[in-house]
Amino acid sequence: MNFNIKRTLLACAAVVATTMLVGCVTPYQSHGATGGYKDRQIDDQTLHVEFSGNGYTSRDTVHKYFMYRCAELTQQHGFKYFMVIPPALSGSLPSTNNFVSSKGFDRKLMQKVHSTAPIIIYGGGGGAGVTKWQNAADIRLFNDDAVMTTKVAGWDAAEVIEQLGPYVSSNGKTPADLPKAWVFEPGHSKVRAEDLLPSAPKKSTVSGT
Questions:
Q1: Mean pLDDT of the chain, nearest integer
Q2: 70 near 50, Cβ under 8 Å?
Q3: pTM of structure
Q4: Distance in angstroms (rounded) separating the CA atoms of residues 71 and 55
């Protein structure tokens, strides 16, 4: 076969392969050519987590994959809950003394984290008319024995994995909703965040006669 023809055919095959690769929605995977997750450990209970999608991956899918990865890492490190660290704790905003202090949370360790980003980064670039979504955030892992000094919102890793598992394993084809966050407050049992909203149904009380 003529060398130039062979080279042309190989080039065409490469273009076709690249087109097929780029044309697919980013699966739940370690970061590669079409995107995926990557993470790094900051300290024993703090991680930086990212999930990037290509131009065919929706914002909703990227967010669900990001949350699923956070839940996976939480369990892998032996913890039950995770919270997205607010900018004040990650260094974007001035810190105060009213955060969380215990063996479950060390405020000084949290202050080690430096970030100039919002809690979760949305957005991205690409060519004209192409949007590539990304979630990136620092998360803090904790268990039921964490002593809270202020209200914090977090997710139960087991719930996230159970509810999003079918969505992740089917590459987004099986519908699934992210479970609601929990609110942890000093001296109180955890409650669903939605139950604290003004629109939440009020618990009725019946007075005796």
A1: 77
A2: no
A3: 0.71
A4: 25
